[in-house]
Amino acid sequence: MFIGFNSRTSPSNIPHSDISLKEDSKKEKADGEVVRLQRKIGLVPAVSFIIGTVVGSGIFIAPKGVLMNSGSVGLSLLVWALCGVLSLFGALCYAELGTSFTKSGGHYTYLLETLGPLPAFLRLWVEFLFIRPAVSSYVSLAFGRYVVEPFFAPCPAPMALIRLVSFLGLTFVVAVNCWSVSMASRTQVTLTFIKMFALVLIIIPGCVALGKGKTENFQNGFEVDLLTLDRLPLAFFNGLYAYGGWFYLNFVTEEVINPNRYFANIPLAIICSMVTVTVFYVLVNVAYYTMMTPAELLLSDAVAVTFANRTLQGMASVIPILVALSCLGALNGGFFAVPRMLFVGARDGHWPPIFSMIHIRRHTPLPAVLFLYPFVVLMLMTGEIYQLINFASFPRWFFIALATLGMLIHRYRFPLHPRPFKVSWVIAITFTLVCFFIVGLSLYSDPWSTGISCALTLTGVPVYYVTVNRFRLPHRWRRIFSKSLPELPTFHCDLALK
Description:
The protein has 498 residues and is mainly alpha-helical.
C-alpha cells in the first residue's frame, strides 16, 4: 500500500552510470505509474491554500491580544499593518527560497541547504514536539468554541463539549488529508471562499458606519500611556500569529504546478494572497473599532460574535458558523502542509524511514499525517487555549529568521546558484533583523514561556547526535550509547550541502 523514499536512493545520489542503465527500463513504466507526490496545485488552489491557511481563528481572536499589549487603538492598527508588511517580506524571501530549492519541506529544506543538518533537524524536532500540536489544538479549540457557544449563550458552554466538538473537527480534517490530495485541495478552496465571505460581512457594516461619521473610538487613538516596551513584542506575536501560514505553500513545492519560472505560481500566489490578507485584516480591525469601544473589545472572548450581535441582527447566528468553518480551513491547511516537512525529513534520513512513505493509490504521505494526530489530540485535551500562542511563536520565528539568514549566506557563498525569483537585499535583511529583534525582546517580555520553548528546542541536540549523527560523537560516547541503547534506531544522512 505504500512506497518509500530514501536519501540513499534519491535521484541526486544515484551514479550517472546507474542512471544510464536504468534509462532503458523507463519505457516499461509510464510516467503516470511512478508513485510520487503529484503536481496538482495550480495558481488558484495555491492562492486559496495560502489565504485559507492564514485566515483562520487568528483574526477573530488575536485583536484582543494585540490591543491589550499595544495599549491604544491607533497603535494596534499600526501593529496589524506592520505585521502584514513583515509577513509579506517574509513571504517574498520564502518565494526566493522556494524557487531556488524546489524540494518540498519548507523551513526544514531551506535550513538543510543553507545552514546544515543540525538546524534542519531541530526545526523538525520542535515542529512535531510542540509547535504544530500547539497551533492545531488552538485552532481546533477555537472551532469547537464557535460551534458550541451559540447554543448555550448567554451561559458559558461546557468545556468538555467544546473539546469533543474540537476533536471531531480535527478527526474530519485528518481523514480528508489521508484520503486524497485533490479532496484536501478542493476543501481548502471551498472553505477559503466561505471565510472571505465572513470577513466581508464584518467589513461592510463597519465601513458604512465609518462613512456616516462614527469615528469616536479613533479619536486620541495613539495615546501611549498604557504602552510598555516589554509588552510590545507580545502584541506583534499575536498579530503575526493571525498572519501565520504564509510559508505553508513552500512545504508542498513538489506538488505545485510550474514552481520555478519567474513570477510563476509560487511567487505570484504568495504576493497576491498576502496583499489580500493584509488589506482585509486592517479593514476588519477598523470595522471592529468602529462598532466597539476598546473596553468592549477587551471584554470579549469572541470578537466576531460580539460584533455580529451589535451590527448584524438578522445574521448574528450565521457569523459563528462562518468563523467555525474558517478555523476548519486553517486546520486543514496546516495538516495538508506540515506532514510534507516530516515526509521530506524522513526521505533525507533525518526521521524514521516509515514517514517517507506515500500511499500507493492516494499519493498522500499517510504515515506523516497520522503521526501528528495523537500529539494534537493530547494537547487538545490538556492545553489551555490562551497560553499556546507565545509558547509556539518563539521557536517558529527564531527558525524563520535562521532560514532567511541562511538564504543571505547562501547568496554570498553561491552567487551563481539558479534563483528564478530574487528578493531585494533590503527586504531580506530587514525581515531577518526584525525577526531576531522580536525573538530577542520576547525573551525579556515573557521569559517563562520563551525559556521553556528554548529549552525544549535544545533537547533535540542530543537526540540528533544519538540518532542522525552518532558517528561524530567521541568513540567513548558512541560505545556507551551502543551498550545502553542497543535498539535505538539510527537515522542515516547522506546529504551533501549544495
